[in-house]
Amino acid sequence: MTITTLIADAVGLRKYRRPVALENANSFPDVSAAPLDSRRLIRDRRYCCVLSGQDDLPFDEVSLGCAWKALEHEMALVPGGTVFLHSDTAVATPYGLELVPNELQPVGVESLYIDRHCVTNADYARFVEAGGYSNPMHWPVEVLPNVLQFTDRSGHPGPAGWLNGKPATDRLNHPVVGISWYEANAYANWVGKRLPRSEEWQRAGTWPKGQAANGAEVRYPWGNAFDPGKANIWTSNRGGTVAVDQFSSGATPNGVRQLVGNVWEWVDAQYALHADEGIEVQLDGTIAETRGGAFDSYFHSQATCQFRTGQPMLFRGANVGFRCCISACELPQADDQANPNERVSEL
């Protein structure tokens, strides 16, 4: 399959848009031409609310154009395709129970846009300042009593490691951590996005590099060999999170950064452990899946595009963050028609 066929199959009848120049990735685009109300939404990273017509409110063409510009700066297109999800099976051995990895059935993935980097402390602070913790629209009814316990070190609503409702000023561009699966979902809902499903997250890391020589998906966004210079895990000797724009050499070719390393990422999937017949697995409550490994992951075999593990949905660890996505079919058709050949050549 050629890259041209791949892109055409993935995007289908959608019109092509000119990709964002990655060298300008650190500066948010100028959206000052948009009216004040939509400009505020876009600068708060809620541009998907504008594009998808939040609350059926009509937005003018200038606002839509600025929202597209912001989306293309902040998110990357992941073409649809197929991934092979892996799982662990508990088996009995003479030495006790062991987990044996196995490959499950192929799963189809529709085209989507995914955040180029994890949600940062600065991003999440906008949600907190907007009263996200006190708005019941962002929380499932059954978890509302727990929302009162989602506080920082000073008792203010916010991530576990913050103080007085604010992040440390020297960590504004680090991924937000200390948030439960529910808090990640609440933020995603506020910005008009959602958490990626397990297969979508895996597709984002594996599609640009295709398959290895043996036909298997590549293990890392850059290939099959681990490189501590491309991902922040234990062997990288950082000892904590780093800014979301570091380890740029480990990004996918279309500019999705730190899918592997720095922080585990919540995804929209319940973690399930399979077991051989006769073995009963009892998990401690409902476990949500996490992906990608973190700064404290000792084994690089756990920081791959395929490895799956999980944490209780109320877990608020210092090594778990998240990124958001939106299905391509939820967005309106693009207005401009960049040359498809130009788009493919730039990819």
Automatic annotation (TrEMBL):
Statement: the UniProt record of this protein carries the keyword Transferase: yes
Gene that produces this protein: pkn1_1
Name recorded for this polypeptide: Serine/threonine-protein kinase pkn1
Sulfatase-modifying factor enzyme-like domain ranges (all copies): 74-324
SUPFAM superfamilies in UniProt: C-type lectin-like
Classification via Gene3D superfamilies: paralog of FGE (formylglycine-generating enzyme) (3.90.1580.10)
Top enzyme category: transferase
InterPro entries given in the database record: CTDL_fold, Sulfatase_Mod_Factor_Kinase, SUMF_dom, SUMF_sf
Keywords: Kinase, Transferase
